[in-house]
Amino acid sequence: xxxxxxxxxxxxxxxxxxxxxxxxxxxxxxxxxxxxxxxxxxxxxxxxxxxxxxxxxxxxxxxxxxxxxxxxxxxxxxxxxxxxxxxxxxxxxxxxxxxxxxxxxxxxxxxxxxxxxxxxxxxxxxxxxxxxxxxxxxxxxxxxxxxxxxxxxxxxxxxxxxxxxxxxxxxxxxxxxxxxxxxxxxxxxxxxxxxxxxxxxxxxxxxxxxxxxxxxxxxxxxxxxxxxxxxxxxxxxxxxxxx
Length: 243
Description:
two-stranded antiparallel sheet; alpha/beta; eight-stranded parallel beta barrel; TIM Barrel
């Protein structure tokens, strides 16, 4: 299993105009790849050149729903230039959810986008937070609405396992439930707060499914703790080797 880092982990540096510094920090963490967010204001070729120089690849970009619905051609062109194969819908805005009909519309919209993406050589996945489990309609949570109303051959999941404990969900069992729909495993950096979770069992379950990437995300920044990120990368790598 390859280990990457979500570029959001270095948001304080990026916000201060330190894109190159943030990428250098990511590379020094020992990752094989990075996952980008909020990147369209920087030319894709600039990212690609910097990634090549840092010796890492882009495996995943986080996108809101609107560009996947209204500007998919640009999304594909940009990600093609990046060399990135995985397009991720990372979030549903508050006005894009809150009712079952809105969740169904989101499922339909992402399914259509995923079909076009697959036809053009990309994979699609959805990245969860906590509201996907907290919003429940007729006994069905938001994430299940998405899963039950999309094509399993098109619509994958980037599972953020750190969000599951607060809903009493077992991380490894949920990984097994998703099966081949699980495309990427997302984890918090260890020792940075948040809900505890059994990362070893979840990583083992994902490895058994041949999930290619585990992505570390430091969601507790202010400022970026590169030591915590680097240690987490090492922990995940040790876990995958020992399983």
